[in-house]
Amino acid sequence: MVHIRQESLSVNHLVARLFVCFLTISLFLIPSSTLAAESKTIVSSEEVVNAVEKVSPKIEEVGMKLWELSEVSLLEVESSKYLKDELKENGFKITSEGTSGVPTAFVAEFGSGKPVLGIMLEYDALPELGNEAVPHKEPRKDGVTAGHGCGHNLIGAGALGAALAIKDLMEDKKIAGTLRVYGGAAEETEGAKVYMARDGFFGDVDAMLHWHPLNAASVMNIRTAAQSQMYIEFIGRTAHAGFTPWLGRSALDAVEIFLVSVNMMREHVRPTARIHYIIKDGGVAPNIVPEKASVILTYRDASRAFVEEGVAWLKETAKGAALATQTKALAVDYYGMYDLLPNTPLAKRMQEHLEMVGLPQYTEEEIAFAKNLQKEAGVEPTGMTDKIKPLPDEPTVGGSTDVGDVSWQTPTMGVLMPAEPEGIGVHTWMATASHGTSIGVKSAVGAAKVLALAGMDILVDRAFLEQVKKDFEKRTAGFEYKSPIDAKIKEPVGLPDEMRSHGSVLDLKESFHKQAEDDQFYRTKYID
Ligand SMILES: [Zn+2]
Question: Quick check: is 466 in a domain?
Answer without folding.
Answer: yes
